[in-house]
Structures are given as C-alpha cells and as structure tokens.
Amino acid sequence: MSGKEKKTVKTVIDGKEYAFPQGTTILEAAKSVGIEIPHFCYHPGLSIAGACRMCLVEIEKMPKLQISCHMTVDDGMVIHTNNERVKKARKAMLEFHLVNHPLDCPVCDQGGECNLQIYYMMHGNYISRLRENKVKKTKKAFQIGPHVMLDQERCVLCSRCVRFCQEISKSNELGIFQRGDREEIDVFPDMQLNSPYSANVVDICPVGALLDKDFRFKTRAWYLESADSICPRCSRGCNIEIHYNLNRPWKNEGRRLARLKPRCNLEVNDWWVCDEGRYSFKFIDDDNRIEGPLVRTDGKARNTGFKEALELAAESLRNSAASTDVEIAVLVSPRAANEELYLLKHVFSEQLPGTRLVFSSATPFEPTEDDILRKKDKNSNTRGAELMGLTPDSAQVWSLSELKDAVLAGEIGALYICYHDITGLPEEFSAGWAEALERIPLVVYQGTNTCPTSEKAQIIFPAAAFAEREGTVTNFEGRVQIQQKVFEPLSEALPGWQIIQSLGVALGGSYEYESAEEVFADLAKNEPAFAGLSYEKIGSGGFVAKDAKA
Amino acid sequence: MGNITVKKIDTSRPMTFLERIYIWEILRGLWITNRHFVVNMFFHILNLFGIKTKRKGAVTIQYPEEHRGWHRRLRTRHYLARREDDSPRCVGCMMCETVCPANCIYIVAHDHPDPNVEKQADKFTIDMGKCVYCGFCVEVCPEDAIRMDSGHLEICSYTREDMIYHIDRLLEQHHDPSDYKNHEEWMEEYP
Ligand code: SF4
Ligand code: SF4
Ligand code: FES
C-alpha cells in the first residue's frame, strides 16, 4: 500500500451508493458499511479460496451470481446482497453444506458460536428434504495434535485450516483428501498438527470440525464473558480476549478463566496467537496460588493479614537499611506492569535510599522464537522496564549474577523479589541460588504462585495475576497496551502496584493512588518515554511510546 | 384520557320473610349439616364392615393414604432416562441448565468412550428445593433424556442437602405409570 493513493470507486450496494478504495472485495466493502454477507471460506488473514459459495451476491448485468469474497468493487457496479435470488442461492448452498453434516450440535463445543448454526437460523430455516443416509466419515472426536480435535463430519471443507497451515504457520500439516462427498480434512500420513501455532485453526474453523482439546466440554460458549487483554507470555504482547465464567463455578473445576482467544490487531499479531501464549493462563486458577500475606517464623508460614505483614516487612527493611555493612536489593520483574515498575522505582528510592535494583529477564520458559509472532524474551514488559531505566544497561542496576556475588559476599541484608522464581530458572541463572537465598537474612517475596523461591521467603505478599488487575505492558517495539482487570483477585491478593504502595506507606511515605490509571498518569508525567500517554490514548489497540524506537 | 363510565349492577335481592326472621335459616343449615353427617356416617360404617358401596363415605380424600389421580400431563419429579442399552441418554449438552429459569441444574460433562456419542454428563445435579416445575428442561432436551413423568411428587426431606438430587439418584428413577392414577378414571370415581 505504498506509493500513490488508491483510486476510489463508486459502487451501489443494496440501493445505496458508497465510495470504496479500488481493489476492495465486495464482502469487505459491504462489511465496512454494516452489511454482513455470510461466508465460510473467506478469512481476511488468508488467501481467497472461493470454496464455499456462501457469499454469492447478484451484480447487475452479470448473468450469474458472483462470489463476493473474490470479486472486487468497481465503478458503476450495482450489487444486491439480499434480494430473492441471492437468498434462494444461499439457502440452497446451506442445504448442500448440511447434506452430510451430523447435526450433533448438542455435543459440539462450537455450538453457540458456530457459523453454520447462525447462518441456518438466519438464512436457511428449511425443512430437510434429505432422504439418503448421510455419508459417514472416519474421524470423529479424533485428536490430530497436542491441542486440536478433529471431527470430519462437521467440516464444511472451507479449507481455511489448510490455508492457515500453508500460509501462516507454514507447517503444511493439513490437507483435503478424497473426492466428492467423501472429501475430508486430515493431517498428512504420519504427521501431527503440532506447529507452535496449531490451535489457531480452531479459531478460524467456522464450524465445530476443529476444536480445542483443552477447552473440550469444559463449559458452553454462551456461559462465557469476554474481556480484552494482552498475552503475558512473551514480549510480542499479542492482543487477546479472555473468556471467563464466574456465574457457574461448578464448571471447569472452578477455574474462572476458560480460554484465551486472539484479538485482531494488525500492528501486533494480526488474527493469531501462539499455542504457548494461548495456554499460558493456567497458573491463574492453580491450587498453588498464594492466597494471603504470609509470615514465616520457624519454618511455619502463617497468614497474618496485610497490615501485620506490611509492618513487619517495613520494620525489617528499615533495620537492614540502618546497618552500614549490608545493602537492600530489589529484584525487579519484567513481567510486572508499567505501573508497578514505576512505583517500585519510586517507593524504594524515596523510602529506602540506596536500595540496589536488580533486573533479570530470565524465565523458566524455553526461549523460542520465529518470524511469525514468538519472541525470545518471554516477558511481557521488558521494554517497559528498559524505558524506565530499570535494566542492567544503567550502571546502578545489577544483573542476577552480580547480585549473587554480593549475596555470597554477605553484602545483602534484605532482598525483595517480585515474581521471579530464581531457583526455577534455567541452570545458567539459577545455579547456586538455592544456597544463596539461605544466606540472606530477610527475603520478601511478592508473587502470584507458591514456588521454591517463595518457600525460602520470610514474608510473602500475594499479588494479583495479569487478569486480576488493571495495568499496562510495553511490548518489544515499545507499544504500550492495556491489560484489563477481568475479575477480582483471588481471596486476599492485591494488584502489585497496590502492595508496593502500601509498603511505601508502611515505610512512612505518603502514596495515595486510587487506581492503576492514576499511577499511569504520574508515570506519563515523570517518565519521558511515556510522555503524553494515557489509558484513553492507548485504547484497545495500544500506542507506541515516544522514545521507543529500538 | 376519555371518561370511563362504570355501569353499576346490583345483584342483591331483598331478603325473604323467612330469611329475615333468621331462626328458620339457622335450622335449615343445621339440617343440611346433620343430614351429611348421618348419611356419610352410614356409608363409613358400611365400608368399615367391608360392605362395598358405589358411593364413598365422604367426598374428601384421605391423603396421604389415598391419592388424587394425576393427569397424564402432570409434571412430576425429574429423572434421567436411559437408552435401550441402559446407558444414560443425556449427552451433557447443558441445554436444560441454560434454559432453567430457577438455575437449579448443575452439569459437568466429560468424554464418552464411544466417539459417536462423544459427550456425557459426569455430574448432573438438580436442586429440587429450587425447581419451579416449569418443565422447560424437558421441553428443551434434544435427547429426550430428562423427563418429568416419574410419578413422584412428594419431595420432602429434613435437610436441604437431601433435596439436591445427584446423577445416581436421577438415573435410578424410572417412569412408573402405576403411580399415575388415570385422571379420567379418577374423575369418574369422584364425579
Ligand atoms: S422444571 Fe423448570 S425449574 Fe425445574 S429443573 Fe426443569 S427447567 Fe429448572
Ligand atoms: S438437555 Fe437433555 S441431553 Fe442436554 S444436558 Fe439436559 S438432560 Fe442432558
Ligand atoms: S466466502 Fe466466498 S466462496 Fe467462501
């Protein structure tokens, strides 16, 4: 789309004249003016297949109906998307699509979000004329990869999944086999649908032929509510929808978060997410969540309530600050939101001047990367920390190994750990830390889940997970994006920024932020990289921070 | 708003002389009550000695020993029906749970060993204490799995927990037509 402006053309759709850029398909053009043309095989992220013939429209002066997903608008075109002829054709196409469909909607997880169901109710609604037996296909409830279940009978052969595997994941696992009414989708012999993006075929399958193994039978689509968020699993920051269920706690073993779905953002992730990100939410409803502030004395952890734990933490931190031979260190996490990082930076430098900041972007995850979406850095906010000067590029901030040396030299009197499970990191980062942690007189841990590192801490603060608090994260290219608060934090957990603010207050400061948005407003004022940003400006698509060009 | 005219209709009639002197009506009332008492007593005594009469001792029903006949269409307590091979019909589609206006159905589904059935209810619970007996669940069920013709209407218990019927209890119940005294028959019996 570089170079010269596109010509606009005048086209009449359903009796109204509109102007569209030349080259727009009729389907997209109609959609842009609010006319939905039913379709199965067309997907804006994939090539055009023209396989389903659901999108037929009448164009005046053309003898036959045309597929609107392929035909582009042109000057003087007069298009009818909903006249009798088109409706009749649509109905007939639906009849074809349903000839061998098993009609097992009751057991199909796609029910409620199935295009075949929706179109049948909108455009079909005929009484079946089928007398023959339906053609039975071979694979039903068949697992074709780690995440995807195949049901060949439900398939409408739109070939979206095949095109996805060819064009997007480029892994080419799926194909269409046989001919005529025995035609079926399948993986190639001896292959598995196991590319790192495999579960996207579930999202693009317009019917229930490809379904998510993980979500299978957990609940029904219409019980779920949805909120926008950002995938926390790598520095790409893919836009996602969080589908959750609070009203029916007996479903899904009481887990509130049911599934993650990609949300289209053409600047970040198009229509896709990787499987690692898609299934990265399990920790939120895990049994090992830290539910209340704990204080460990003589090896026994006891829930003291926030007030006591905060006072104890403040007192112990102040004691170690008073000592001249030891330092206090704070291990900052690149998984914390911008708001939290900002407060962390300020509270510690204002209340306990001389506190040593430590930063590590190591994660227990495999550093997978490709040129589709996945980034090697498996943290959601490394760039945000970098823009605030919290990374070891600045001389005051230590790396994990520098910290370890200092610990082993006995120079660290207290360590405040945010989210990092140091002992659970890959060997090169975690080596020696199990003993090193024992050497520190006071370890305070702030995190979501119990881990070997938190087991070593004397004071533990329960933090809200990314879906339980509002906050912004900055992706690798400096795009600041909002993670909405989807539901309340588990039991006593609090958003990270709130814990740090309360600690600041317990240390004698006065911090009175009411919401993450207020923290962000201050952050935008004081951090030049974020100047001029606000939640409103970031919106649902994100906004690239000013000095972010890497 | 237009004027609304209300037409008054007086249905009262002036009392007759006998009604007005009061004592006569009292005696008439006593006579009716006593006549019923004596006649009913007579039939009760006959029945007591095992003499069958066409007429019963009284028009009232001796509940709970005696039941009023139930209409075939009466909705009674739910049960989960089975297929010919005795496996539960329910496929755990959660339609009934969705439609239930009282929110008293709780279903958890899992895989069925047969891929052609695919899904079945793992847990299926109805809180009878909340059910309003609307029958929507029966209406909506695509598998004719949940039915309300068990012929059990008296659901009572000493605890709330006992009012919660889990899948095993719902599956053991069957439709028992003998509990449905034919309504027409009953109407003949109690004209
Ligand atoms: S009868 Fe009505 S209230 Fe009772 S379980 Fe069925 S749908 Fe719910
Ligand atoms: S509607 Fe019928 S098949 Fe579906 S869950 Fe209820 S009882 Fe089972
Ligand atoms: S959407 Fe146009 S042919 Fe399928």
Describe the structure.
The complex is a heterodimer of chains A (550) and B (191). Chain A is of the alpha+beta class. Chain A has 3 domains: 8-98, Roll (Ubiquitin-like (UB roll)); 133-285, Alpha-Beta Plaits, CATH 3.30.70.20; 294-544, Rossmann fold, CATH 3.40.50.740. Chain A is 25% helix and 19% strand. The longest helix of chain A has 17 residues, at 306-322. In chain B, the strands form 2 sheets. Chain B has a 3-stranded antiparallel sheet with strand order 2-3-5. In chain B, strands 1-4 form a two-stranded antiparallel ribbon. At the A-B interface, loops of A face β2 of B. Bound molecules: iron/sulfur cluster (2 copies) and FE2/S2 (inorganic) cluster (FES).
Strand order across the largest sheet of chain B: 2-3-5
Q: Quickly count the domains of chain A.
A: 3
The percentage of residues in β strands of chain A lies in 15-25%
Summarize the main sheet of chain B: 3 strands, antiparallel
- Assigned CATH architecture of one domain in chain B: 2-Layer Sandwich
User: Over the alpha carbons, how many angstroms does the gyration radius of chain A reach?
Assistant: 28 Å
- Parts with pLDDT < 50 across at least 5 consecutive residues of chain B: none
* CATH domain topology of the largest domain in chain A: Rossmann fold
Share of helical residues of chain A = 10-25%
Number of strands of chain A: 23
Secondary structure class of chain B reads alpha+beta
Shape of chain A: elongated
β-strand amount of chain B: 5-15%
For the residues shown, what is the average pLDDT of chain A? 92
Main interface pair?
Answer: A-B, 17 and 19 residues
Shape of chain B: elongated
CATH class of the largest domain in chain A: Alpha Beta
Order of helices and strands of chain B: HHEHEEHEEHH
CATH C-level label of one domain in chain B: Alpha Beta
Oligomer: heterodimer
Largest sheet of chain A: 7 strands, mixed
